[in-house]
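Hey, resending since the last one bounced:
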Amino acid sequence: MNMESILSKKFAVSHIDIEKAQAYQKRTNGRLEKILVNMGALSDDALPEFYSELLSLPVINLDELEGWEAPDLTGIAQFRKLIEQHWFPYSCVNGVWSLAVEDPLNIEVQQLLSFYGIPFKLHISSTEADSFLSAYYQSNDLLVTNELSSDEEERLKELAAEAPTVNQLNSLIAKALKSGASDMHLEPYQEKYRIRFRIDGVLQDIDMLSGKMRLPIASRLKILSGMDIAEKRKPQDGKIEMKIASEEFDIRVSALPVNDGESIVMRFLRKESIKYDMDILGISGDVRKLIEQDLRTTAGVILLTGPTGSGKTTSLYTFLNAINTSEVKIITLEDPVEYQLEGVNQVQVQSDIGFDFSAGLRSIVRQDPDVIMLGEIRDAETAKIAMQSALTGHLVFSTVHTNDAPSAYTRLIDLGADEFLLNAAITSVIAQRLARKLCPHCSVPHPNSNELAQEYRLTELASKFNLELELREAKGCEECNHTGYKGRIAIIEYLRCDDEIKILPKDKHFPIAARQVAKSRGYRNLVEDGFYKAILGITTVEEVLRVAG
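The structure tokens again:
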């Protein structure tokens, strides 16, 4: 009898509730019976009987523990990890351990047992029996520990170094790099290990590994990136440096405990392949002229805004690269330093020792720089020093997190920056998003071009900038991994902060007033610049609406 039949026939769970739970299960990483408990459709007390029916295992009740004597666990440190997960050693006969378990479907514990090589058979513990056993082992100081014995740690290292683990991980990394992925996500999902790549800013399902690979692969990544392989309850960060086919890579690794194990994300930083060039960014000619004028100034603040992953750092590096000569001293303050720029003094923020952005900036201005780049303005003190640095003859680049260019003023004032400082120091604000470019090998004319042009007034925009309307759509081929897109392009909202902007009151009405001024000058907002590139056939209307709509 399958799970759905047991739930409906033995526990009177309605088919409607089961269908709702299954629909939710498809969207999330969860188990059907746990979802039904959370919905209130299945009693928590019914789970032992449910597992017993599903797996044909006996149930241990509280009355069966009367007169029970705990087995001798002396010298068996491995059981600490099992007890922590409510898998309790109940008895041992001829070297085979009977375990009373609360959740027999816990794949993490099954992996541990396989890892330890312990012969066992399972019994389901009732709620009362589980509470009794938990209290017993806790009172005997056997419940919680987070340390591995030296033997366990060595075995874990051996498991991580075995050929199947090494080959599987190397294969995934090679595949990610070949496909141009910026990140690889390894996530516990429905008792398996889901592998996803972020390509051109969008996550794509790549593979679904057996749940047995979770522990070995996670352990290998932790060893390679310098993490603690025994720590599974706290987030950890690490770094791997490697060389593949004569190209050097930094891989930033992040491990995060989740409900069903650990989620691990690897971010690939290519040291040599990144080119910081305006042409590669894809900034439109009219906007590029305005930015190049700003870069020729000797003092002021140029701000980039946008959410995480919108390409702000790449744009900042590109701007710095454009003015990076032997006559100019450039110092950056970053968290973290992701790419090395030749001829630029790059400083890493270290908040754990009090060297944050504000402290670092105070030190930087004493180094006599011509140009300063701050990774982000996060507080009032950093904002104040950045503005004052601009007023004392420095060209300052930085970022803030806002949705558009005018909102940068509102954000900085919310942080505590003085309005008069912002008016005096800010040269321009550039809001940015990254839109996927159409694959040049397979894009085709859009069949609904006329309808889209009418709905989004694209004909007027094309006429305004003397463009020929050429809407295209993504099709998909082997060159673009059947996504229809390959590479990304910046879509930009530019705001020149001249006297007309400075005299506007920086109150709640400022963003609207600033947008009206920008429109009167012929500047495009984010959506319009995206549509501008869609009209040219570089991207699609759908992609512009996805990232900036």
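Confidence is low (pLDDT under 50) at residues 142-147.

Sorry for the duplicate.
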